[in-house]
Structure formats: C-alpha cells, structure tokens
Design a protein that fits this description.
The protein is mostly helical. The chain contains four helices and no strands.
Length: 71
C-alpha cells in the first residue's frame, strides 16, 4: 500500500513527511481506495492553502477518518 501511496504522490508532484504517510497507511488498514481518497483530499487542501507539504492535512484527515470508521 505504501508503494501505491508513494506513486500517487509522485503523480501529483507533492511531498509528505514519511511519518504522515506511515500513519495514512496504518489508518487505511490495507484499503488502497481509502488511502488514495484521503491523500487526494489532503493534496487538494494543501494546494488550496498554497502549501506543497501535505503532512498536516494527512494527519487531520486520517484522524477524522478514524473517528468516522469507529477505529
């Protein structure tokens, strides 16, 4: 799953802190669709805020996702 997420980052030409990506992969629990959807939203929010680093958005979104999924 981490390879898929890394490829998506490359395709979007953005970066994220390794610990944030590890957290995203852990929270997705093997669900690539959930990881990529979360990443897509994080990238969009980072671009809107004119921040190339998406780490903060990944943490925020994965915490919200965990709350919604009951994890």
């Amino acid at each position: 799953l981490r390879v898929v997420v890394d490829r998506a980052l490359e395709a979007e030409r953005v970066t994220a802190a390794p610990d944030a990506l590890d957290h995203l992969v852990d929270m997705a629990d093997g669900d690539a669709r959930a990881a990529l959807n979360t990443l897509e939203v994080a990238v969009a929010l980072a671009e809107e805020a004119e921040r190339p680093e998406v780490a903060a958005r990944l943490w925020e979104l994965s915490e919200r996702w965990t709350g919604l999924s009951g994890g």
